[in-house]
């Protein structure tokens, strides 16, 4: 009965979305993405920083590790597919003759909005990613000036003004700060973080960017990594088992990010700025996981330690290490579609698909989808 109802619901949603799609014409020639591991398609791995991604990462879709901290595709992958565009190549991935004709991905796992410090996982902060984009653009224009030889590999000159600029970053600024700051101090740092973000957006605007697509940050307190470290005292948890302080900080960050987007619409008079409430989508998924066909909202699919979290900070997904006197391996669960969380920090492909499908309804966007919004709303159930 449940399966039948799910099928009916999916069919109705697909019909509604396709009806919406037929009423509008979305056509973006390229996408330029900036962010962290939520949308990194191989940048950090290509840079050779940190430990390598091992199987079972990538197993669900790519059948191998594919630069993504996931068993398969990320939200950015599903959104690219919805636009009938190829998956974005990472800026630093030079192996295999990557094609950047439809855009480029500058996102790198562990990245922050604020400049990196000596303790940062990634040196590719938002400012660095913006600088990389400018170098990318300059090099593209140089190659285009040499003739048509490189045309099929790189964006056309007008793609930089007509393209979509996507952003999903800020999670690590908050999550990392909790390890050495109080909740009040983390919250007090939000304006500084967003000022850095605003400066980066202004630089992109000055270089011709006009279409901005900005994700807010998710419920950090619902990640097994944060629960394991910050909720040894159960009183720190909310009613669905998430760390209250982290989610409160995320909400306040998102409130101020939303206000910034509203302000910039007045500053960037000829630009479109779309704010996406990813937090609400993800929190609803975790709080009501069974309604969406999941069985485990917080437990990591790929990890070590068993329930309730199956997460141990000493060992990452796919690794084999000697812990507590014995050799152990962080293995994947049998069915990734039953899990929201992949490795204690990132989401499974199944969860990413759900989040993407909710984004594409337009209900979580400000402004809601209109004839000026970017995505052809085609959802593949």
UniProtKB/TrEMBL annotation:
Gene3D superfamilies: SGNH hydrolase
Assigned keywords, A-Z: Glycoprotein, Hydrolase, Signal
Highest taxon of the lineage: Eukaryota
One function term, GO molecular function aspect: hydrolase activity, acting on ester bonds
Keyword Hydrolase included in the entry's annotation: yes
Signal sequence coordinates: 1-23
Protein family membership: Belongs to the 'GDSL' lipolytic enzyme family.
Protein name: GDSL-like Lipase/Acylhydrolase
């Amino acid at each position: 009965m449940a399966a039948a109802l799910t099928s009916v619901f999916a069919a109705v949603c697909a019909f509604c979305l396709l009806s919406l799609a037929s009423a509008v014409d979305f056509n973006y020639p390229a996408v330029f993405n900036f962010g962290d591991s939520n949308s990194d398609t191989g940048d950090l791995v290509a840079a050779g920083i940190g430990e390598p991604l091992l199987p079972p990462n990538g197993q669900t879709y790519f059948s191998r590790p594919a630069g993504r901290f996931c068993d398969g595709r990320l939200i950015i992958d599903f959104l690219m597919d919805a636009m009938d565009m190829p998956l974005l190549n990472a800026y630093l991935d030079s192996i295999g003759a990557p094609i950047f004709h439809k855009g480029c991905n500058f996102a790198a796992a562990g990245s922050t909005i604020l400049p990196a410090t000596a303790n940062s996982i990634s040196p590719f902060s938002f400012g660095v990613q913006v600088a990389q984009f400018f170098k990318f653009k300059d090099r593209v224009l140089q190659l285009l000036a040499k003739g048509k030889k490189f045309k099929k590999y790189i964006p056309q000159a007008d793609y930089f003004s007509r393209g979509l600029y996507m952003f999903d970053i800020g999670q690590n600024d908050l999550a990392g700060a909790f390890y050495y700051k109080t909740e009040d101090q983390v919250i007090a740092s939000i304006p500084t973080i967003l000022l850095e973000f605003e400066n980066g957006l202004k630089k992109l605007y000055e270089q011709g960017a006009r279409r901005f697509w900005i994700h807010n940050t998710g419920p950090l307190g619902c990640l097994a990594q944060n629960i394991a470290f910050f909720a040894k005292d159960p009183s720190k948890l909310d009613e669905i088992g998430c760390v209250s302080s982290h989610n409160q900080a995320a909400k306040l960050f998102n409130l101020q990010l939303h206000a910034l987007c509203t302000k910039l619409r007045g500053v960037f008079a000829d630009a479109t700025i779309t704010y996406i409430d990813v937090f609400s989508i993800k929190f609803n998924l975790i709080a009501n996981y069974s309604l969406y066909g999941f069985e485990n909202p917080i437990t990591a699919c790929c990890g070590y330690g068993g329930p309730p979290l199956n997460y141990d900070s000493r060992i990452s997904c796919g690794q084999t290490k000697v812990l507590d006197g014995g050799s152990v391996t962080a293995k994947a669960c049998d069915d990734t579609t039953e899990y929201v969380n992949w490795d204690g920090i990132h989401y499974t492909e199944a969860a990413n698909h759900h989040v993407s499908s909710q984004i594409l309804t337009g209900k979580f966007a400000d402004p809601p989808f209109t004839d000026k919004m970017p995505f052809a709303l085609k959802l593949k159930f």
